[in-house]
Amino acid sequence: MSKEIVIGTRESRLALWQANWVKDCLQKLAPAYSFRIKGIKTLGDKNLDTALAKIGDKGLFTKELELALLRGKIDLAVHSMKDMPTILPEGLVIGAVCRRENPGDVLISRKGNKLEDLPPGAIIGTSSLRRRAQLCHYRNDFKIINLRGNVDTRLGKLESEMMDAVVLSFAGVHRLGLGDRITQLIPLEVCLPAVGQGSIGVEIRAGDEEMQNLTGKIDHHESRLAVTAERALLRKLEGGCQIPVGALGTVDNGRLLLEGVVASLDGSKLVRSSWSGSAEDAASIGVQLAEKLAQMGAGELLRSMRQENCHNV
Ligand SMILES: NCc1[nH]cc(CCC(=O)O)c1CC(=O)O
Question: Among 69, 282, 287, 303, which is least packed by CB within 10 angstroms?
Answer without folding.
Answer: 303
